[in-house]
Amino acid sequence: MKKYIKRSVSSFLFRKENRASGNVSFQRIYHNHIRKCGGTSINKALISSLGGNDETYEKLAKSRFHKIDLQMGSCVGWNTQAINRGSFFYAFSHQALHRLTLDDSTFTFCFLRDPVQRVISHYNMLQDLIDEDPTHPALVEEKEFAFGNFDHFLDNITEEHLQAQLFNFSSRYNVDEAIYRLRSNINYVCDFREPENELLPFLSSEFGLNVDYHHLRSSKAKFKPSSDQYARLERMVSGETEFIKKAERYHGFNFNT
């Protein structure tokens, strides 16, 4: 009975939304936001283009269902039920793509990044949170590896966080499966440093959005691993590195340049 009530409430609260009727390619936009791939800046820029302001992102994070109605349409963050139901104009979350159900009328994009640099960025982010926001949920969820030096971090980080890009596309960390899902379910893959080149012009023309993008956040912590630590990390993310290299060949860019 409880499950039935929950499903009924969800279907009422999170009804599928279409931005337009008639012959349009896509009805909504979803950002498959892999952590530490530069996604927060694009989220804030797109929220602003929908009619939000500097406070809207924090408002969205604090709202009960992580959903806000804006002038151009509704925005959803971190709400898997609403995302799976297509109940948004723009949505984003850290949920792995293999755990989501998105239909063909949803334009889905993601950023990818060099695997070693992404993990180092994750470590630097945690150091910033320890210094500036010690009650942040990430420090609770990642307490087993958040505190301590970089060696402790590498000793204890979970595979899901270590190879987050590979895990996003394959729960089994299978490179071929990940490439298949990337090619089948992502409409646009972007180097996180270059959203202005093709992604933002497409969003502007396809959805009528005026996107004013600026890269907003960079870690204050600037840890650089030793050569031994770097080599160890390279070995630890070898599966994701293989995935990224195949993705580079398919999409024609290089995340190391």
Overall description:
With 257 residues, this protein is an alpha/beta fold. Strand 3, helix 4 and strand 4 (90-93) form a beta-alpha-beta unit. Helix content is 48%, strand content 11%. The protein folds into 2 domains: 27-114 and 175-207, no CATH class; 115-165 and 219-251, no CATH class. It starts with a helix and ends in a 6-residue tail after the last helix. It has helices at 2-13, 39-49, 56-62, 80-84, 115-132, 137-141, 143-146, 150-156, 159-162, 164-169, 175-185, 199-207, 227-236, 238-251, and strands spanning 28-32, 67-70, 73-77, 90-93, 106-112, 188-191. A 6-stranded mixed beta sheet has the order 2-3-4-1-5-6.
